[in-house]
Amino acid sequence: MKLEEDIQYLKGIGPKKAELLKKMGIHTVYDLLTWYPRAYEDQSSLTAMADLRVGEKASVSGVIMNLAEKQAGRRNMRILNAMVSDGTGFLQVTWFNQKYLKQRLNVGTRIFLTGKVSYAYGGQGNYAMSQLSSFQILEEDETAESSCGILPIYRATERLGQKFFRQMIKKLLEDMGEVPEIIPAGIASRYHLMPRREAFCKIHFPENRMDVKGARNRLAFEELYLIQCGLMMLKKRSREGKQGVRHSEAGRLMHKVEESLPFALTDDQKKVWEAIQRDMESTVPMRRMVQGDVGSGKTVIALLALVKTVENGCQGALMAPTEILAEQHYQGFRERLEPFGIRIGFLSGRLTKKQREKVYGNISGHGLDIVIGTHALIQEGVHFARLGLVVTDEQHRFGIAQRAALEKQGDLLPDVLVMTATPIPRTMTLTVYGDLEVSLIRQMPPGRKLVRTFVRRPERRPLIYSYVLKQIREGRQAYVVCPLVEMKEEIPLPSAEEVYEELSCGMFRGIPCGLVHGRMKSAEKEEVMRAFHEGKIKLLVSTTVIEVGVNVPNASIMVVEHAERFGLAQLHQLRGRIGRGAYQSFCILVSDSRTETAKERLHIMESTQDGFVLAEEDLKMRGPGEFFGAMQHGLPDLKIADVLTDLDILLKARQAALETMEGTADMGKILSALAMQYREHFLHIMET
Ligand code: ADP
Ligand code: MG
């Protein structure tokens, strides 16, 4: 049986089931084989309810004795309560807002749960569990089978249940015979990898925890190894026949620009700048990421690096994710650098065709030294005469393909500098970003005032907004941020438009108010933003479009409505819009969420202003999927490796991939494995 065989030819799978499987993304035998369990039910580690301890995590299984649903709170949250027993004790289980769950549960249903144990309030039973880390409805005849050890738990659906997956995969493993190896034998033995077939068997049907661990190691290694090989091939191809720029040591221009800065660099900025100069002065192309919190002063670093490339007779490009940000950089750079005769250009989708073509001409004719812009920088038609350095700001908004497109410009291999305010784990910089060195700016420029942050309930809105009004009367400006409203929302939230209506026609009547949201045309957005920037608008109601980089030092107060809807890192980015001037600034997070975690989460905002701490908290609470999900990084989700915790395996896999690339191994085999695993995803990247 071939791994790339269509699933519908497997015994026991007819056209109907095949269709359902394909809906889940399972097309081939290989997909089924790599449909890894998302958890295991380990009978040997089940805790009897009588032995549960408050504060500890435990797995239990039991029968539902009693089931009740109620609605509570101002937002009519659905609360489903079940009393579960395993014969030794009772456990009260609570689910919030799980609309369809009730239909699937009955008195008598057997369930399996993992979660943290707490005291039960009211009701019978000694203990309670909510926020389950795993939950599983057990089928009737699962007892016999499951009593024998560890059972895989798959992502299943109502029509294709656990039993289906367990049986199909078991049968597949029995019938399959040999599984071709893709990792070269030398590497497999050097890195002590278990045979591939054994790994597949053990990941699905382990006998003990060690089996799971060993198999997982092997399979995660393979996954990361393949991606590394793919990235290395991609890099090699884009570099073929090209040379890197070797910049010289700082000369007169560089020194003059450095002397003209209105402030001294902080120690962290100095360190980063030194590292960048070292990189740029070497023949190996620079690939460096600067991670520094909002306001830590990354822009000046980009500016210095760009001047360095200009001093060496090259051109530099700075790509920003939004028009507003690009334009802001453009203005700032012109003020700083034009006195030195450095020619700066701007390129964005907003330019007319004629304007754009003029800029294109200046780029290819070397009539411009530094070009600042948006995605427009990577459109066809842009050809740099001599591109020496590419800087991307707020990197996580660009995908792999976009970055590669800019790096491919011209005949030189430009140095690459990436700036981000989001701390990105090493595993990600090595995979998604394809191998970047990382420098950190942890220190803030001196004199930065802390933004005073408060979490407040919606009942206090009148008070909050009268304070906003007072600030505006004193000459300040204010932001009001609302979450995006989705149509499918169960609990209706006021949209930015509605909040704008409420405020501008109510308390803020007579005060110039503005509204920006994602559905506006970018020209309209720009206009409002510009008016706010110029102080013509005093109160700006918006969705998160203001998130990145906007600089209005006179804005000193921000109200975030339904703050629980935002991630901490996002709130932090938002809050970074204020506290930029000489005024004490205030951030008020309005939220009526009652769950402990939500409250706890927001209160972290009151106690710290360290973006790294907040991002870590976010990662812990929301998991990497959601955290990185929005980043559109251009790589598919990993099937088994974990972007946060598998750094060790990744480093080994990367080393192995390097060895493979240097050796004489059969790259065709690796390419076809990549194709099997990632299909259109990776192939798309390979083609760019
Ligand atoms: P970010 O890292 O968020 O891009 P910016 O580069 O926009 O931050 O810097 C934020 C502000 O701090 C800017 O007004 C900038 O001029 C100022 N700044 C940067 N470095 C220093 C420094 N070493 N000393 C004082 N002010 C600085
Ligand atoms: Mg910035």
Layout of strands and helices, then pairs:
Layout: H1 15-23, H2 29-33, E1 39-42, E2 57-72, E3 77-85, E4 90-96, H3 101-104, E5 110-119, E6 127-138, H4 142-146, E7 150-153, H5 162-176, H6 185-190, H7 196-204, H8 209-239, E8 243-244, H9 252-260, H10 267-281, E9 287-292, H11 299-311, E10 315-319, H12 323-337, E11 344-347, H13 353-364, E12 370-373, E13 387-393, H14 400-407, E14 412-413, E15 415-420, H15 426-430, E16 437-441, E17 452-456, H16 461-473, E18 477-481, H17 496-505, E19 513-516, H18 522-533, E20 539-542, E21 555-560, H19 568-575, E22 586-590, H20 596-607, H21 611-629, H22 647-662, H23 667-687
Parallel strand pairs: 4-6, 8-14, 9-15, 9-16, 10-12, 10-13, 11-12, 13-15, 17-22, 18-20, 18-21, 19-20, 21-22
Antiparallel strand pairs: 1-7, 2-3, 2-5, 3-4, 5-6
Helix pairs in contact: 5-7, 7-8, 8-22, 8-23, 9-11, 10-11, 19-21
The structure holds adenosine-5'-diphosphate and magnesium ion.
